[in-house]
Design a protein that fits this description.
Blueprint lengths: L7 E4 L4 E4 L4 H9 L4 E2 L8 H12 L5 H20 L4 E6 L7 H10 L4 E6 L3 H14 L12 H11 L4 E5 L9 H14 L5 E7 L4 H8 L5 H17 L8 E7 L5 E8 L3 E5 L4 E5 L4 E8 L3 H10 L2 E8 L5 E8 L5
Parallel strand pairs: 3-12, 4-5, 4-6, 6-7
Antiparallel strand pairs: 1-2, 7-14, 8-9, 9-12, 10-11, 13-14
Helix pairs in contact: 2-9, 3-4, 6-7
The chain binds N,N-dimethyl-L-histidine (AVI).
EC number: 2.1.1.44
Pfam family, one: Methyltransf_33
Protein name: L-histidine N(Alpha)-methyltransferase
């Protein structure tokens, strides 16, 4: 499967540059010519960034992964019973190594559920490795892996995979979207599913603000390293000269909006040259680069979102601290 983009031109002060939208180069340039400057957290996950994220998931302060694993462990039998009602295609958006999804796969397989697993991940090596591991562990499980972005994958699944679907979007990845992107994403999934198909989304919930703040300001500085690695990636892949010691990490949590916002902040006035663009970017002292949103939700906000995107909320599954929910929605209103 291939993704095609039209070439667009961006005019900045001195140069006309042509890059493909949705590529690292295009998005970095677009983000650094803006004020305030931004970079996209979707570029955190190069090989080193993915390793650092694995370390984050083990941190004592970073609770979401453990909470969601507990939810799936606790509710795997209920999910099995739901999936017994039909032949389900289990679509796993952003599958990675499927560490959490394997809780379900293992339980479903051992209980002789007939289903197909469709992992979707932007990284071809990740889906290939996952598929091989699953074939070894579950030789009779049908697996069709898709290595592309979510939307291309969903369009392909819509046209090529008839039948009942349960789409998983785990890990509170939804929290990394802006409010607008979030609605657009959920509405697109609605359009590409059929009446009565299900979407299970992991939402990190609003809770004690200090617990949230500590999850993004871990005492060992791994989250700071995760953010700093994107500056390093720009140095390596785009020929940048970010001085990694002249930027510090800062994350804030606003308990009203529920947004954790992460920044790299320039500790002095400086110029950063990036060879790919043949230009420098000026930073004032204490100027910010917005790196990531990690939104936390209230149950009411989740239900409003479901309604706005034309889903019916079936149930919210919780961990025992009620820190996190896997919320199951049914696609509704297609036949109206
Ligand atoms: C992948 N994503 C849901 C994580 C989050 O919590 O926003 C990424 C992360 N950023 C810092 N720590 C973890």
């Amino acid at each position: 499967m291939s993704t095609s983009y039209s070439i667009q031109t961006t005019v900045d002060n001195e140069n006309i540059v042509a890059f493909q939208p949705g590529t690292l180069a295009y998005d970095v340039l677009a983000g650094l010519i803006k004020y305030p400057k931004t970079l996209s957290s979707k570029y955190f996950y190069d090989a080193k960034g993915s390793k650092i994220f694995e370390q984050i998931m083990q941190l004592p302060e970073y609770y979401p992964t453990r909470c969601e694993a507990q939810i799936l462990e606790t509710h795997k039998q209920a999910l099995l019973e739901m999936c017994r009602k039909d032949y389900y295609h289990l679509v796993d958006l952003g599958a990675g190594d499927a560490a959490k999804t394997r809780i379900l796969i293992d339980h479903f397989y051992k209980n002789n559920l007939r289903f197909e697993y469709i992992p979707v991940d932007i990284s071809p090596s990740a889906v290939q490795e996952l598929t091989e591991n699953l074939h070894q562990a579950y030789p009779l499980l049908p697996v069709r892996s898709v290595a592309t972005d979510y939307f291309t994958a969903l369009q392909w699944i819509h046209s090529q995979v008839p039948g009942r679907k349960l789409v998983l979007f785990l890990g509170s990845n939804i929290g990394n979207f802006t409010t607008e992107e979030c609605k657009q994403f959920l509405s697109t999934i609605w359009q590409l599913l059929d009446e009565d198909d299900r979407l299970l989304t992991g939402f990190d919930l609003k809770k004690n603000a200090n617990v949230i703040r500590n999850a993004y300001n871990d005492s060992s500085g791994i989250t700071a390293e995760f953010n700093r690695n994107l500056l390093q990636r720009i140095n390596i892949e785009l020929g940048g000269n970010f001085n990694l010691d002249a930027f510090e990490f800062y994350a804030s949590y606003d308990p009203v909006s529920g947004f954790v916002k992460s920044y790299m902040i320039s500790t002095k006035a400086q110029q950063v040259y990036i060879e790919a663009f043949k230009r420098s970017f000026a930073f004032e002292a204490w100027e910010t680069i917005h790196m990531e949103n990690s939104r936390k939700f209230g149950i009411r906000e989740i239900e409003e979102l479901a309604l706005a995107c034309r889903y019916e909320v079936e149930t919210h599954l919780f961990d025992n601290q009620q820190y996190f929910t896997d919320s199951i929605w049914k696609v509704a209103g297609k036949n109206r």
